[in-house]
């Protein structure tokens, strides 16, 4: 009798485990964002980023892309952050720019794109965002992704990155009289 009860309990437990696993896999296949949110809430950040990536691959929606970038930042996945933040900010159709109500959210993702692409040595993409997508070239301050890019080059004494930034500066488009920018460009030339 005791063996039958134990055997029944084990079989019941195994059936519940298998059913739970099947439900989880099914939800992950049908609605990856739902399972991604669940993983994120549990602190399983890498799995959440993976699931949000699957969701974005299925929909191609800008809001899913923003969630994917944020999840990748939380997971510490520099490669995903670099790839998807660049896609978000340098969107050829400017869908993302049209969805933000003020420049601060766009600037936030521009900063993420500049820094993450720098960190994975995608210098061209980093400079492209800093020069063309982040902010108007009328100011040079902490709100400018170009400012962040210059700071990264100066802080790390990075000659290759500095050369790209100097080329971007020399292509023009920046307002005359930005003396701090001119000073920083001279510092980059000395690296």
Index terms:
single chain; 191 residues; mainly alpha; 79% helix; elongated
What's the structural blueprint in terms of helices and strands?
Layout: H1 2-30, H2 32-42, H3 45-59, H4 62-75, H5 78-89, H6 95-99, H7 103-119, H8 123-133, H9 145-156, H10 159-171, H11 179-189
Mean pLDDT, all residues: 86
The coarse silhouette is: elongated
Radius of gyration: 23 Å
Could you give the order of the helices and strands?
A: HHHHHHHHHHH
- Catalogue the unreliable spans: none
Helix/strand-derived category reads mainly alpha
Number of helices: 11
Which band does the percent of strand residues land in?
A: under 5%
Could you say how many structural domains there are in total?
A: 3
**Terminal Cα separation, in Å?**
82 Å
Helix content: over 70%
Number of strands: 0
Major beta sheet summary: none
How would you briefly describe this protein structure?
The protein is mostly helical and 191 residues long. The chain is built from 11 helices and no strands.
Describe the protein.
With 191 residues, this protein is an all-alpha fold. It folds into three domains: 1-29; 31-76, no CATH class; 87-191. 79% of the residues lie in helices and 0% in strands. It contains eleven helices and no strands. It has helices at residues 2-30, 32-42, 45-59, 62-75, 78-89, 95-99, 103-119, 123-133, 145-156, 159-171, 179-189. α2 (32-42) packs antiparallel against α3, α3 packs antiparallel against α4 (62-75) and α9 (145-156) runs parallel beside α11. It starts with a helix and ends with a helix. The mean pLDDT is 86.
């Amino acid at each position: 009798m005791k063996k039958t009860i134990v055997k029944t309990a084990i079989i019941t437990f195994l059936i519940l485990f298998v059913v739970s696993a099947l439900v989880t896999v099914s939800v992950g296949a049908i609605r990856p964002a739902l399972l991604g949110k669940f993983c994120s809430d549990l602190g399983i950040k890498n799995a959440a980023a993976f699931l949000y990536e699957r969701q974005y691959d299925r929909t191609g929606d800008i809001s899913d892309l923003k969630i994917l970038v944020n999840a990748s930042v939380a997971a510490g996945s520099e490669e995903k952050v670099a790839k998807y933040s660049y896609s978000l900010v340098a969107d050829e159709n400017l869908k993302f720019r049209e969805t933000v109500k003020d420049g601060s959210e766009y600037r936030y993702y521009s900063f993420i794109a500049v820094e993450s692409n720098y960190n994975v040595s995608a210098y061209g993409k980093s400079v492209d965002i800093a020069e063309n997508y982040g902010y108007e070239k009328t100011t040079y301050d902490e709100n400018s992704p170009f400012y962040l890019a210059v700071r990264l080059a100066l802080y790390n004494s990075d000659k290759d990155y500095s050369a790209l930034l100097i080329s971007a500066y020399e292509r023009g488009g920046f307002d005359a009289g930005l003396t701090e920018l001119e000073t920083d460009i001279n510092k980059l030339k000395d690296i």
